[in-house]
Amino acid sequence: MFTPEGPSFRELAVQALSSVEHGYDLLAPKFDHTPFRTPEVILDATATVLAGLGPFGRGLDLCCGTGAGLDVLGRVCQERITGVDISAGMLEVAARAHPEADLLRGDVRALPLGAEYDLAVSFGAFGHFLPKERPGLYAQAYAVLRPGGRFAFPVVAPARPGTPGHLALLGFDAAMRIRNALWRPPFVMYYRGFGLADVRRELATAGFSVELYALEELGRRPDGSPRARLVVATK
């Protein structure tokens, strides 16, 4: 839920009618007071799994935003950590919270980096990429990792059809598609269509081997399956 320190309805409306980059520039000062920030329970659960796979040397947060993922990298990486984001406003907030990190403004679909990282992470950003763009994103992640490096990100199990959560996602997705059909520039943010089977196949095509780890801190569904998993793709 939004806190009193979060953006007003008018501020959200202005953001939603902007481009992705400018929208996040506007939202940046209040972003950490919105439900869009990755919850601490997911960050902590991710750090726990990665700590068991590490330690790592250099770390990279793709679409770092205000720096939630940098907190995770700081716990599991022994060398420098770097964040990349397209929004200058989000990077300004991240710089204040993480003076120890190197922050770069750039498009993760065309990273200006070499194969020098041992771990790359990303949190909550994949909804900003159309399905046809994801293979290129995974190829970029592969390119910046050293041999044996890992690309990790959490995936929450989809809501059951007909549940309030599922209906809310359908409504949000429909609203964004109508907005983008009627207004320019587009604001790509689609939370549906990020299926685990597709992700695993696309990562394998990019050259990764893929493992899944249950994020047990988030519990399990009635059928016993995890409510969230950490995808760990190894170069």
From TrEMBL:
GO MF annotation list: methyltransferase activity
InterPro entries: Methyltransf_25, SAM-dependent_MTases_sf
Domain of life: Bacteria
GO biological process terms on file: methylation
CDD domains per UniProt: AdoMet_MTases
Keyword Magnesium in annotation: no
Every Methyltransferase domain range: 60-149
Pfam families referenced in this protein's UniProt entry, alphabetically: Methyltransf_25
Record keywords, A-Z: Methyltransferase, Transferase
Protein name, as recorded: Methyltransferase
